[in-house]
Write a structure and sequence with these properties.
By secondary structure, this protein is α+β, with helices and mostly antiparallel strands. Helices cover 39% and strands 14% of the residues. The longest helix is centred in the N-terminal third of the chain and has 30 residues, at 2-31.
Length: 639
């Protein structure tokens, strides 16, 4: 009897133990995400594996910035994004050689779904997917999930872009446009003008093709979200140019151009991406817009950007604005578009316009150009006017082109600089040139892309000097960010008041954002507040700026002179030269250099030369481009 009781007790205990273990393991699977896929997307050509400690170091933004990781539900997955920023520090470009996107299983996400009517009431396109992720795009509708505002990245105000597109496309034969679309994809300005001159295409059809592509791929399809405004008269303006049959046309005549949403126009709102200014139409065009129009270019629309040129908050994802939401990288939904001229890079690489214009304070043209495989050119400081552009720092802000070819960047820069010289660029411009390859970008392991870069430079006639290094200037990093905070507060307040903005001060914008934090300051506004709290006087700021400019110019000049270099080249997204050059005022030119075989991530090469040698730099870049032939168009399908 006792034995029977013991056996029964043992059986019961075993049953409870097995059942309890099963239930525990099941709950762990649903509450603790299982990592089904994890891939590091490297910004620089290196395939060296990194341990977990090194990975944590790599996600560091800069010496004064907190690490940032975005996790957001995506169906039954979770995305984790290590952030890179267009408002760079020296440490971020020197050390941050990778950013990571991870997909992890999250079965609990499905249990969190609910109706987000409060948020959708602030966004007229409430039928659109409210979750536009930094790493993944899902076609069709998707129910919003119950998460904190920082995880809910929306695609805002679709009709703002679509209404003027649909109204104008009604008068066009869409089938005919799509038959000719292949002629336009990847075409440079010279080819487009030749197509029009030979009656294979009209300016009206060209504008229509771009509008149709924006409709199909930017506002629908994979929803890249690069365009924030569209001119309601672009088709009528293009048709007028067709009827004029103007002889001796300027190079940009009839070419549709998109502008970063901080560049002032009298016909379209200018906002710097903020909700506070989303409907503000300025009373005059920016100086560069006047130049573009004078040369016959047509303003097609505005492009999305990192809000306030990445001066909103350290947690703001690249390419996100409260006005329009998140723009994405067309080469892969898992790749960072970088910023702050994110939408301009997307528009250029996806053929949403013939030309895109961005602005750079530090890295904001060069970084997104490299990340999205286009040519990005930041001219020497002072050669292109920034009048009429919402400032981050008027002493450093510089507009420049993002285009599919170096020649198009050259033609556009000539217009922006009022340069009459239209001498063709030379394929021989690298012959007998000494090009220094910056060593702080690469690992010790030579990748196929780096080998090709050196081979292409050599085949173009250049002598490649390897092992070029720049001194780490930690105090420059710290002082520069402090200076930007002071400049932004002073310059923005002055700009808003002079241009009679509906919001007259930074303080009033900060207060406005608090009225609807879910939409107006989804990721916070710590950088705006830091600028508002700045007590640095104008004289103090000038003294700091002069010292920083002197230090960075001296560092770059000494390397160029001591090594007898015609240019320094930096491969990949990183590279301290890309932090120092904008402060020093040197020109920068980024050119596609290839693609990662596994991730399709674009790789780039950036040239930096002496100040005011812009045409020589563009010539060297052209010679490299012509012999390397690296760029390929993105495939605009759901990924």
């Amino acid at each position: 009897m006792k034995r029977r009781i013991i056996i029964i007790c043992a059986t019961v205990i075993t049953t409870f133990s097995v059942t309890g273990t099963y239930l525990y393991l099941t709950s762990q699977q649903t509450s603790a995400p299982e990592r089904t896929s994890s891939m590091t997307k490297k910004d620089l050509p290196t395939s060296k594996p990194k341990d977990s400690n090194q990975h944590d170091k790599d996600k560091k933004i800069g010496s004064n910035k907190e690490n940032f990781k975005l996790e957001t539900g995506f169906g039954n997955k979770t995305l984790e994004v290590g952030r890179l920023t267009g408002r760079v520090s020296q440490e971020s470009v020197h050390k941050n050689k990778s950013f990571e996107i991870k997909l992890t299983k999250d079965n609990t996400a499905e249990a969190k779904k609910k109706e987000s009517s409060k948020l959708n009431n602030t966004t007229p396109n409430s039928t659109l997917p409210s979750k536009v992720k930094p790493g993944k795009v899902t076609p069709g509708k998707q129910e919003p999930t119950e998460e904190t505002p920082i995880q809910d990245i929306n695609f805002y105000d679709k009709e703002r872009v679509m209404d003027p597109i649909d109204a104008q496309l009604e008068s066009l034969d869409i089938a005919a446009l799509e038959e000719k679309e292949h002629l336009v994809i990847g075409a440079d300005i010279a080819k487009l003008q030749n197509l029009i001159a030979t009656n294979q295409l009209s300016y009206k059809e060209l504008a229509g093709i771009y509008l149709n592509r924006i409709k199909k791929h930017d506002q629908n399809g994979i929803m890249l979200n690069a365009i924030t405004e569209v001119s309601p008269t672009i088709i009528a303006e293009a048709e007028q140019l067709d009827n004029q049959n103007e002889p001796n046309k300027p190079a940009l005549y009839g070419m549709p151009v998109v502008l970063k949403d901080n560049i002032g126009t009298i016909t379209l709102p200018t906002s710097a991406g903020t909700v506070a200014l989303k409907d503000w139409v300025m009373e005059k065009d920016a100086a560069i817009v006047d130049k573009l129009k004078t040369n016959g270019a047509l303003i097609l629309g505005k492009t999305n950007m990192s809000e306030w040129a990445a001066a909103m908050d350290d947690g703001l994802p690249n390419g996100y604005s409260g006005k329009k939401g998140l723009s994405k990288n067309p080469y892969s939904s898992e790749l960072d578009p970088l910023g702050s001229s994110s939408g301009s890079a997307t528009a250029a690489t996806c053929d949403f316009a013939a030309i895109a214009i961005g602005t750079e304070t530090n890295g904001s043209i060069i970084l997104p150009a490299g990340a999205q495989s286009v040519v990005g050119f930041k001219p020497s400081q002072g050669l292109v006017s920034n009048e009429g552009i919402i400032p981050l720092s008027s002493r450093f802000d510089t507009p420049g082109p993002l285009t599919r070819t170096v020649t198009d960047a050259y033609l556009t820069t000539n217009v922006l600089m009022d340069e009459a010289n239209q001498t063709p660029l030379s394929k021989d411009a690298l012959k007998n040139k000494r090009i220094g390859l910056l060593s702080d970008d690469e690992s010790n392991e030579e990748t196929a892309i780096l080998k090709k870069i050196k081979k292409d430079l050599t085949n173009a006639g250049a002598t490649v000097i390897e092992g070029i290094t720049l001194e780490e200037l930690e105090q420059v990093d710290t002082d520069y960010i402090t200076l930007l905070n002071a400049d932004f507060k002073r310059d923005l307040n002055q700009f808003l008041q002079i241009n009679r903005s509906p919001m007259s001060t930074l303080e009033s914008i900060i207060a406005f954002n608090k009225t609807n934090p879910t939409r107006n300051m989804k990721f916070g506004q710590s950088e705006l507040v830091a600028s508002q709290n700045s007590t640095m006087t104008k004289q103090q700021a000038d003294n700091v700026a002069n010292e920083l400019i002197h230090i960075t110019q001296n560092e770059l000049d000494s390397v160029l002179q001591n090594e007898r270099l015609d240019a320094i080249v930096s491969a990949g997204v990183g590279g301290s030269v890309k932090f120092l050059a904008p402060i020093a005022g040197n020109p920068e030119l980024t050119i596609p250099a290839g693609y990662d075989n596994e991730s399709n991530q674009p790789k780039s090469l950036t040239f930096v030369s002496k100040r005011n040698t812009d045409i020589a730099l563009l010539n060297m870049g052209y010679a490299y481009e012509q012999i390397s032939k690296n760029r390929k168009n993105p495939i605009l399908t759901n990924q």
